[in-house]
Amino acid sequence: MHPRNVGTLLKSSIDPLMPQAKRLLELRQILHDALPANLAKASAIANYKQGKVVIFAENSAVAAKLRLLAPGIKDRMAQSGLEITGIEVEVQLKARAVAPASMDRRLSAAAAKEISELAAQLADSKLKSALESIASKASKD
Fold first, then answer.
1. Beta-strand (E) ranges in the chain?
2. How far is CA 127 from the centre of its chain?
3. Residue range 25-34, pLDDT digits in tens
4. Rounded to an integer, what distance in angstroms lies between the CA atom of residue 14 and that of residue 38?
5. How far apart (Å, rounded) are the C-alpha atoms in residues 59 and 71?
6. Residue 119 CB coordination number (10 Å)
7. How many domains, the chain?
8. pTM to 2 decimals?
C-alpha cells in the first residue's frame, strides 16, 4: 500500500474520534478544577456518552466522596455548554507501576539473643526448635 493511502486511511479513521476526545479532555480539565488536588489525582474521566459522564475513582472512599460532590461537578460541567444528564462513579483500581519494596526481615543481634534465651527456658518442643532455628539464622546474618 502506498504511504499516502495509509495516511489517508488513518486520517479518515481518526477524524470521527476527535470531537469525543476533545470533549473528554475538556471534561477532564473541568473535573480537575472542581476537585481538591488529592481527589483530582485519584479520579479520572472515563467516558461521556448521551449526556452521561462516567468517572473512575481509585478506591471506594474516593468514589463515595465523588458521589457526594456529583451535583456540583455536574453543574460545573453543564456551565461549559455540554448537556450533562448524570454522573456515574465507578471504582477502577490503578495498576501498581512499581512493586512494593521488600522489607528487611533480619533480626538484630539483640533480638536474636533474646529469642535464644527464651528458647533455652522452654522444654523440648516444636516451639523451642523453631525459636532456636530463628535465633541461629539471625546470628549467621
1. 43-49, 52-57, 86-91
2. 41
3. 898 999 999 9
4. 34
5. 20
6. 19
7. 2
8. 0.58
